[in-house]
Amino acid sequence: MATDVQVPALGESITEGTLAQWLKKPGEAVAADEPIASLETDKVSVEVPSPIAGVLTEQLVAEGATVAVGAPIARIDENAAASATPAEAAASATTNPAGAGENPQLRGTEHAPEPAPATAEASAGDDHITTLSPAVRRAVLEYHVDPTKIRGTGKDGRLTKDDVLAAAQGKTAAPESKAPAPAAPAAPAPQAKGPALTGERREERVKMTRLRQTVARRLKEAQNTAAMLTTFNDVDMTAVIEARARYKDLFEKKHGIRLGFMGFFVKACALAAKDVPAVNGSIEGDEIVYRDYLDVSIAVSAPKGLVVPVIRNADRMSFAEIEKTIADFGKRAKEGTLGIEDMAGGTFTISNGGVFGSLLSTPIINPPQSAVLGMHRIEERPVVKDGQIVARPMMYLALSYDHRLIDGREAVTFLVRVKEAIEDPTRLLIDL
């Protein structure tokens, strides 16, 4: 008896997603609750589990297709036997023609087949190509390697980007093998003049992921709707650096987590928001919403783009709780396991471009929020202290805000309060 695998609920207001990758092939056995496909939504990637144990008999949609919540994407037969070889599995996939979801540009990188009967190994190689992720496909095109000759180290033997990079490095280190010459050439083959592939100009068209489309739409929406303005200040990081150096070992020993800079800034923003509540507010229709809590969205870099999970009730959390939450978000972002609920809401955003080396920027508001704080890299600069020019570890801060709700005086006051708390962390302890 065959059972349809349906697209699960993807979260509030999300009605469809893109089938990013099949994790199981037709003919393969699957266990109950084992992921068989990966869906990409506007915010996160979601794995689709099998509702029963059995054999995947059909893939009803191709990779890259848009699927609605509740739509069937595959069939599982609990009474069928798994195929013996990938070749037999491919033959049974009548609803997924050979090459479905394959990037046409990959065909130019494949070697011509040997004049011999097709083998199960060749079939497995062809199927292997069709399940390459977009990142791996881009790497294959960029480094001109044959994916069928690379042993995958990912789940179920799939190729990863690191596999392709390792193969490319080995190809560069060793001389490239050449095709065998004809047995008895009548005359020497003419030599090509000038570089053949060295100077080749390439273009690649890759469909935007749903996440990237959503980011682009929301950021443009913010520019079109909000009256955005950015105010700047700089902060002397000496006190925070010294406090961190003094207590980091004790902190890690007691709490099992490293003491970072972000905890100081989250606490400083929570303190400043009490004095300037508009920064933590938002406009809804013709009303202004003020809040007595602070849910801080933290911009985190993930393999598929920027994600913004939320630290809820950050104003009531300790340094250890904040650092543990941030570390957990970072780990799950890299693994792709952040859920939609992790990124829902948020009343204020902190973006740390300094980890990538940014000196100064004008961050864009994350609607419907009204402000975002941009942190940047720390570098020693000459400053005047007590009439003397001295070197200090300085950081530029930027606060972008919606001028419809937040006046310039309020924005500057908020940023000054953050500066004061960072330069004198004792204020964070005695609520000044």
Q: How would you describe this protein?
A:
Helix content is 30%, strand content 23%. The longest helix has 18 residues, at 238-255. The strands form five sheets. Strands 9, 12, 15, 16, 17, 18 and 19 form a seven-stranded mixed β-sheet that branches. The chain has 432 residues and is of the alpha+beta class. A hairpin with a 2-residue loop joins strand 18 (379-385) and strand 19 (388-402). It contains eleven helices and 19 strands. The chain is globular and about 80 Å long. Helix 3 (134-143) runs parallel beside helix 4 (161-173), helix 7 (262-275) crosses helix 8 and helix 7 packs across helix 10 (408-423). It has helices at residues 86-92, 120-130, 134-143, 161-173, 210-225, 238-255, 262-275, 319-335, 340-343, 408-423, 426-430, and strands spanning 2-6, 16-22, 29-30, 35-40, 45-49, 54-59, 66-68, 72-77, 228-236, 282-284, 287-289, 296-298, 300-302, 305-307, 310-311, 348-352, 371-375, 379-385, 388-402. It folds into three domains: 1-96, Beta Barrel (OB fold (Dihydrolipoamide Acetyltransferase, E2P)); 102-174, E3-binding domain (Dihydrolipoamide Transferase); 227-430, 2-Layer Sandwich (Chloramphenicol Acetyltransferase).
